[in-house]
Amino acid sequence: MPDEVVKTKSTAESGNKSNTDQKLKPCCACPETKRPRDECIIERGEENCKELIEAHKECMRSLGFKI
């Protein structure tokens, strides 16, 4: 029975969004594109990593971040 109360409270507090969506920060979003982008910039320079930079921006936009 306590589980039902917690679920109801969680649903009421979060509205239509899940708790994960509300807590997602830009620094933690899109790790699958962020790491390769960062490594490329460090090793090859920003000017040589345009495709990886754009892929990360697209990923961030798909999650609702305004980039």
Q: Can you describe what's shown?
A:
Cu cation binds at residues 27-28. The structure is a single chain. The protein is mainly α and 67 residues long. The protein has a domain at 31-63. Helices cover 67% and strands 0% of the residues. It is built from four helices and no strands. The chain starts with a helix and ends in a 5-residue tail after the last helix.
Short summary:
Belongs to the COX17 family. One of its GO terms (cellular component) is mitochondrial intermembrane space. The protein has helices at 2-14, 19-23, 31-44, 50-62.
Sheet-strand content, in percent, reads under 5%
Mean pLDDT, nearest integer? 80
Low-confidence stretches: 4-21
Count helical runs.
4
Percent helix: 55-70%
Would you report the number of β strands?
A: 0
Q: If you compute it from the alpha carbons, what radius of gyration comes out, rounded to the nearest whole angstrom?
A: 18 Å
Distance between the termini: 44 Å
Shape: elongated
Class per helix and strand makeup = mainly alpha
Give the H and E element order: HHHH
| Biggest beta sheet attributes | none
